[in-house]
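Re: that backbone. Tokens:
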């Protein structure tokens, strides 16, 4: 989406945005313009200023203008401090394409009974001896960014996560890198304008609790309360994620993983120019008013700050 925002939400979702997100359709354009004017006065931030991008942040912050400013600053700061995840995101790059074709993270068609999107995490397919972990995370973030860009309803209703833990190799590798965990946690909890309304884990092996307790240590209390561990009990899963939302591989009726993956590969290709252009947005810490931020400030870890070229 680009240019002036045209609302395509149902009357029910417009009302939900009012009730849950403090969105006033009469004031929406003025709030968007307020944030756009503020961004023009921030010498260090080069951000997307189209209506749709700003509106997603406003909705994610329940239309608190100050929180929206903080969130946007944090998002672009994290983006610039993680060039290994946010640069060279050409979906036709041979190495990145091979990861995307695994269908690691798939926004599923349709919505659950509360109108939320379901994101299926299939990291179990990843062979980390073949692929670099940063490239795997890059591919996953690319898919999340594409979904955020294309799902108007999800900007109001948010989403739930379903993670298949058949193979814990990916999670174990991430956990061995506390710095990476801190970066991912800061990015999702402080930078992105939406948070999952439910975290569902299935096919959890015996070692899962030990591994997951480390993950949980990085979560805010609100997120910890949204966790559901189902083990191999799909009937338990269906109480949180109805089977009609799920692919046939998980006992559902919502298409196959292959069909869903192919749909998103086509969408990624269609938005290739958007993905390539997106690399120019970020922050220049040398221009930040006051004290420049560092990786220690953001993630609590030392690290080189490779400035993105955002001139």
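Recovered sequence:
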């Amino acid at each position: 989406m680009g240019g002036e925002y045209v609302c395509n939400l149902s009357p029910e979702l417009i009302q939900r945005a009012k009730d849950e997100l403090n969105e006033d359709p009469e004031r929406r354009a003025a709030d968007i313009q307020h944030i756009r004017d503020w961004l023009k006065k921030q010498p260090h931030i080069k951000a997307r200023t189209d209506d749709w991008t700003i509106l997603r942040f406003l909705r994610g912050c329940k239309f608190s203008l100050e929180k929206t400013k903080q969130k946007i600053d944090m998002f672009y700061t994290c983006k610039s401090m993680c060039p290994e995840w946010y640069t060279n995101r050409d979906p036709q790059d041979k190495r990145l394409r091979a990861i995307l074709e695994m269908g690691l993270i798939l926004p599923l068609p349709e919505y659950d009974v509360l109108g939320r999107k379901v994101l299926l995490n299939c990291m179990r397919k990843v062979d980390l001896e073949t692929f670099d972990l940063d490239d795997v995370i890059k591919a996953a973030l690319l898919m999340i960014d594409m979904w955020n860009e294309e799902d108007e309803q999800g900007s109001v209703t948010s989403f739930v996560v379903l993670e298949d833990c058949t193979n814990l190799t990916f999670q174990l590798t991430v956990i061995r890198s506390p710095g990476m965990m801190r970066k991912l946690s800061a990015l999702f909890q402080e930078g992105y304008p939406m948070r999952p309304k439910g975290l569902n884990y299935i096919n959890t092996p015996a070692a899962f609790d030990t591994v997951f307790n480390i993950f949980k240590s990085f979560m805010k209390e609100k997120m910890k309360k949204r966790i559901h561990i189902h083990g191999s009990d799909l009937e338990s899963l269906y109480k949180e994620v109805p089977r009609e939302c799920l692919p046939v591989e998980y006992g559902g009726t919502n298409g196959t993983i292959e069909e869903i993956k192919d749909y998103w590969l086509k969408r990624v290709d269609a938005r290739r120019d958007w993905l390539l252009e997106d690399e120019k947005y970020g922050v220049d810490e040398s221009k930040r008013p006051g004290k420049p931020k560092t990786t220690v400030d953001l993630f609590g870890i030392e690290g080189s700050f490779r400035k993105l070229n955002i001139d």
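Strands lie at 45-46, 105-107, 117-121, 159-164, 196-202, 227-231, 282-283. Residues 133-150 form the longest helix (18 residues).
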